[in-house]
Amino acid sequence: EYFHIRCGAHIINLIVKDGMNDMNDTISKIRDNVKYVRGSPKRLHAFKECVKAMGLDEKKGLNYDVPTRWNSTFIMLRDALLFKDIFQHLASCDPSYTSLPSQDEWSHGSDLCQFLK
């Protein structure tokens, strides 16, 4: 008698999330970087000091993504890509930091970010 009609935004969200499954390794690697920096006040402070030293906008932060919102993945990627050089500097200064994405992973993240934009 009744049939269910999904919201258009929900359908778009499902399509985009399904398409992002192919890039899951890259997204996970970048997410791990964000988690590492934000996982400790000391690491976050060191990260912000590097941002300030390199003359980037220190008010801009790193954001986690939320599994149910593809646009939060876009925001996470966009912000992480902005601080790509900081992550590379962090890798040379912090021996416990071991999850730096490769150049290919950064490139794939950039491509995905442009697509999601």
UniProtKB/TrEMBL annotation:
The keyword Zinc-finger applies. GO terms for molecular function: zinc ion binding. InterPro entries: RNaseH-like_sf, ZnF_BED_domain_contain. Keywords: Metal-binding, Nucleus, Zinc, Zinc-finger. One of its GO terms (cellular component) is nucleus. It comes from the Eukaryota. It is found in: Nucleus. Its main location: nucleus. Transmembrane segments: none annotated. This is hAT-like transposase RNase-H fold domain-containing protein. The lineage of its organism: Eukaryota, Viridiplantae, Streptophyta, Embryophyta, Tracheophyta.
